[in-house]
Amino acid sequence: MKSEGVFYAAVKALLMLALVWVSYRAINFYTTIAFVNDSAIFENIAFHMFKGKALYKAAYDHKLPPIFFLNLLAFKLAGPSVNSIFAMERIFAVVMTITFLAVLLKLFRGNFSIALIFTFVFLRHFYTPFLFSSGNYTEEYGSAFLLIGILASLYSIDSIGYKQTALLIVSGIFLSLAALTKEPFVFLVMPWIAYLFLKLNVNFKARLRLGAIFALALLLPALIIIVYFLKAGLFQYLIEVISNNLAYAKYKSGNTGLEGALTGGIGNMKKSILFIITTDIFFVVGVVSAFSKRFNKEYSHIPMLLLIWFIMGTLSVNLSSTQFSHYYLQLVAPFTAVAAAGAVFLVYTLKRSFNFTDRLSISAVIAAFALSLFVFDSAMTYQFYERITKPYEKRQEDVCSYYIKNNTTSTDYIWVPSYNKYTYIESGRLSPTSYVYVLNHLFLDTFMSTGTEKVENLLKELKQNPPKFIVAGDIQYLKEQVPEAVNRWISDNYSFKIRLQRCVILQKNP
Predict the structure, then answer these.
(1) What 3-state class would DSSP assign to 503?
(2) Torsion of CA 7, 11, 16, 19, to 10 degrees
(3) How many Cβ atoms sit within 10 Å of the Cβ of residue 194?
(4) Which residues contact residue 506 at a Cβ distance below 8 angstroms, ignoring those fewer than 6 apart?
(5) Cα distance between residue 115 and residue 103, in whole Å
(6) pLDDT per residue over 172-205, tens digit each?
(7) Is the distance from CB of 443 to CB of 454 less than 8 angstroms?
(8) What is the pLDDT of residues 101-142, one digit of tens each?
């Protein structure tokens, strides 16, 4: 018996190492792909910060600060390169994977086999190219913070004294970081806060004290951000960002409408979440398990909590007026957790209704899972295997960035208003204006200024320090997204220089 226990402990350790190995290598597929769109905006604003530019004042985007400081931290630790961000993403992948496993183990009483299988499912789903794209999205880091906060809250329920207080503080901080990194995570945080305080086994006075401590922990990250911007004399720019977000939300909802957003969301759910048939089957069983009174009672109402968690996450994604595939990364954890609940429910049903032993029940469910995987999802599983076994390669600068680096000096400015935003960091050159990129929503009327004033400020900054090169994905983008007054200035002062891959370069006239 003792040798059997040692054998199973060794097997568990090997499986854990395999899980860590897979999570570490999940990034390999993406390390040669250029950051574009939001992920490129984050790295390039962080690059400008690394070079001494003040966030929002001299390098502007309407996202909240955590994502920029995460990218900046990667640059501070490993140098200003996209490869530094990939290294950070590896760490987040490993931490998030281990935390998700720990959450499932805590929720389902140490059912290691089910927890391990569905952690692998989580990994395969989360790092699917359609969802993950090029990486470095707010949903990636927000998911990790959310899972750490959930794990701490679950352990705080069973703890007492200073340990319980410390875990509540950790939970509050990380749940807050999740919401500050990606605002819709507020919806995913709320069910766990409610569950936490429903399950705390303390008297009314202690509940009030712990509630106050938890509330302060939730507020702490936001307070740190506010103090930082106040001390730096940049608080008005933080207010501008919040104002821009409110104006943007109103602008997009007016253009799309709730009905259009929800209709589009249903189609995106099919592509982004419900594309792995085996997980879908177990998810349906998990939904059924949420309405089993005995099963819910047996597992402290966790199955219903997980379903509510998924519903809240679905609302947070689909109430957005636009849905991009990476938005659905925030749903992978709740979706997979409900599916895991479905597997545990099948084990529970086999034991209770058919008198199966615990080991036989688990073996039967694993066999059913493996059969479904082979029949329905073998091609997708093999694709995941190919991605994680892909050799690691460092990202090299593209031909556009290489050309700019070799035809400018370190003091020359470039301006990259379109989606070639990775060009800043890969060429090592900076923007002369706080608008390191341009999209229509950056010029909405807000608390501090009108859209017209923003355009005038952009034009003023460009005239004060004219960039040597203006870089665009194509000329059409300049016509559609760059304000008309700025376009006229470009036409008067710049001429076509060269067309390279995904890149058109205009040079300042002599």
Answers:
(1) strand
(2) 180
(3) 12
(4) 469, 470, 471, 472, 490, 494, 495, 496, 497
(5) 9
(6) 999 999 999 999 999 999 999 999 999 998 898 9
(7) yes
(8) 999 999 998 899 999 999 999 999 999 998 998 899 999 999
